[in-house]
Amino acid sequence: MKGNKVIVACLVIMVIFIVGVVLRLAKPVLFPFFLAVFLSFILSPILDFLTRKKIPRAVSILFIVILAFFIIYLLGILFYSSGKSFASEFPEYGKKISSIITSVQEKIKLALPEWEPEDWVGQLDINRIGGLFLSSLGPFFTFMSNLFLVFIFLIFILAGRGNIKVKVKNSFNSGRASQIIDVIEKIDNQIQKYLAIKTAVSFSTGVFATVVLLIFGVDFAIVFGFFTFILNYIPNIGSIIATALPVAIAVFQFETLWPAFWIFIILGSIQMTLGNFIEPRVMGQSLGLSTLVVLFFLFFWGWLWGIPGMILSVPTAAIIKIVCSNIPSLNFMGELMSKG
Questions:
Q1: Which of 307, 286, 287, 310 shows the shortest CA–CA distance to 298?
Q2: Is the dihedral of CA 204, 206, 209, 210 positive or negative?
Q3: pLDDT in the model for residue 92
Q4: Nearest C-alpha neighbor of 294 from the set 333, 237, 241, 334
Q5: In the structure, what pLDDT confidence band is assigned to residue 208 with cuts at 50, 70 and 90?
Q6: Disulfide engineering: 297 pairs with which of 105, 128, 168, 313, CB 3.0-4.6 Å?
Q7: Spatial CB neighbours of 94, under 8 Å, sequence gap ≥ 6
Q8: Mean of the pLDDT values across residues 137-142?
């Protein structure tokens, strides 16, 4: 028995390794497919609504795909143009940051004459950060060039929606087929609910953050609003980063702490209200993920696919948890992935 357990453990490790290698090598195809799957869950309720209104299915799918394409394309172009502006103007912030670090070093030197400070400014080379950000925009938005492939997948996924029920009925007896269909529908509804609510809350948080930053006159408000929208898919960690970035820029932009303080209070209140009160009440506590699971998926998918993988990591973990929670033999996995 012990020998069998060792063999099984080795096989599991080998399978995980092989799957990881395949996912890493097949990123150009699998990332658009994964993105299309997530979009299909978000857009399926709209398709069902249009179908109930007696609009032909083909027309409904075409309308949804065109609308989604233009929204994603326009958001991508808007963020990319704002990001280029951010990268080009960042050297000015680099000068301010360098002067602040130099001033702090001088004050420490006066208090501790024997202390020999390191050349932090020279080592940090802050002005390179803008260039690194600009160069990262290309890899981050390579999916823009793959939008055509994403929406090809999306068309076929939406068109094939519902066919699995027919295949199940043809493959099993009526009692067994009914049970399987019930489980599939339950999983489908829960995934739709999770992604729809998460996207709505993330988008609302990003819009509110953008409005607040525009009111205060913070530079690159659209960039930080977009970051807030994306990072809100990552529980806890994402909201902290999304709040810290504009607050840091506000400190250097206004050269006083008061605007940054109020921005921190308002953005933090928005994140707390939407993320910790409204979202759990609407979504339900049962869909909460363990922080350890979130971190594992974040780093694992970040290693596999970089920034795009990190964005999809938590929704992927949530979908796996939903599936495990609805299959009796995998309930223990869903419980292990749960918060608390």
A1: 310
A2: negative
A3: 65
A4: 237
A5: very high
A6: 313
A7: 126, 127, 129, 130
A8: 51
